[in-house]
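Q: I have 134 residues here and want to know how they pack in 3D. Can you give me a structure?
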Amino acid sequence: GIPLIVLSVIWESNQVSSLQLNDWIGLGYATIFGTAVTYGIFFYLAATGNITSVSALIFLTPVFALSFSSLLLGEQLSSMQWLGVVFTLISVYLVNQRQEIAKGLTAFKKQSSDQAVLAEIGEKISTPLETPVE
């Protein structure tokens, strides 16, 4: 924020004089909840939980932005934007479920491996033994 203030002072004039009470409230809200509280929650979850799962939640920011702009501001989302929302939600879900998916794949591999061993044993049993003739 500090570099932006410096650049604003250098290249802009009267940048603050036209702000009204609602503008200041919006800036305060964005400053407190959009940065300070959000970063505090992020670092708390990162310290107590799985950093990969917490990091994946960052990708939900544009999903919320698009959703709220559609619901509150009446903006129409294009099909490409909806597709991006769907892919983002699926990706975040898969990242957060990766341990359960890995367990399922491991069990499936073990089951497939067991079936292959049983099939090999079955072939050996069903193959007639050749005994040498004297």
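Q: Anything worth noting?
A: The mean pLDDT is 79. The chain is about 80% helix and 0% strand.
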